[in-house]
Amino acid sequence: MNTERTLLVADDNPDHRRFYRQALTPYGNVVEATNGQEALESVMQKRPDLIVLDYMMPGMSGADVLQNLRQNVTTKNLPVIVVTGVSDKESVLKLLQSGASDYVVKPVTPGKLRERVQRLLAPLDSNGGAPGAAQAPPRPPVETTKLAQDEDLLWGRRQAPAVSVEAQPPASSAVIKPARPEVPVGERILEVFTTPPNGIAELGRGQDFKDLLLADPRMSVQFVKYVNSGAFSKLDRCNDAARGAEILGPTRVAQFAVTMEMRRAWPAVPTGRLNRTRLLRHSVQTALACVQLSEIMGFCDEMYFFAGLFHDVGKIALETADPDRYRQMLEYAATQKLSELEAEQEVFGIGHPEAGGIVLTAWGVPTQIVTGAAEHEASPQGIAGHLCFLANRLAHHVDSQAAMIKKFVQEVPSDTLNALGLDEGQIIRAASLLKTAELVAIALSNHSEP
User: Fold this and answer.
1) Residues of the chain by 3-state class (helix, strand, coil), percent to 5
2) Which domains does the chain have, with CATH numbers?
């Protein structure tokens, strides 16, 4: 038994938990959770190396637990084996795309479960965590680039190699090979995103967004709903957009108008399986985090809100440029246990930060917004890059418990802390303020749908 490892089993059936404990004891210390909420608490307290998760539990389901884990920076790569009762190809692919590292179909046998556990624990040390465990194949190197440092890669002139994606058994042994793009990715993006909507085109030019709001009947209706939402329950209610604009003020009017204009710029129907609703909610949370951080830093440039709002627009750009390839990228990320950014770089040749830089540069928005999008994932250089880098991660932790937030804060790179002039206490404060702004994030994302 490897006593240095901890394995968490989460199942509401005590007989199942007993079976898992007996099967997994050779691989480490097995701890149990009887429901989804208890599983999340155990993840924080026990820091397991692997989770065996029943997909259908009462209350917080295994699906909910998995979504929570994958949205959290500190647990997004935690190996999770999902135990499920479905085995058709479509359900399995959906399960893997939701973040499962692997799965076992009921009825579960000890050999079937141990095979998955061995494979997922193998990379943790040279012995693979148990006698006879095989070495995991090395992950192919991932080429990362920064905006404007490799123009050939950025604009898609250098095509990425074809990628083979093997479906997990028992779905199929067929190999999916994304076709090489006939048109460079950058050119495809520009075909769709060269002309920004009116509100976005006016960013940084002193536009009175109240005029834009009042001239658009549909936007006016949605704005009145936004003003009267629970986010602003302590303010006066209104029956028309003009009065609402007076109540909330020009900054919130601009935030609402541009958020709705951004949403309008997206294709109406998701075609590459990107969750648009979730993406919009996260983008708004990141934007509000940028505001909280910049205010703590002692200045508040409204452009930083928009930098956070647009930081993930490259995901929309990639999906729109090649929906089929984007769908295959998600499948590739799931089956190969890669982050979406790593899979984007392998399948498209560029990641969504670079793609976002293409869109925002073409739109002619202020530099802070372009920098925030292009640098929010790694190695930021400018203030906007560091701000979006940190705000993006804070937004991923908005639903986390205090202990997990504190651990995340301790892992913030010193370069980012120094560039922004922040300490750990101030970031924890920003996280707390972001939680109180959650109603605003929900209202803004819900009522900005065109």
Assistant:
1) 55, 5, 40
2) 6-124 (3.40.50.2300), 165-447 (1.10.3210.10)
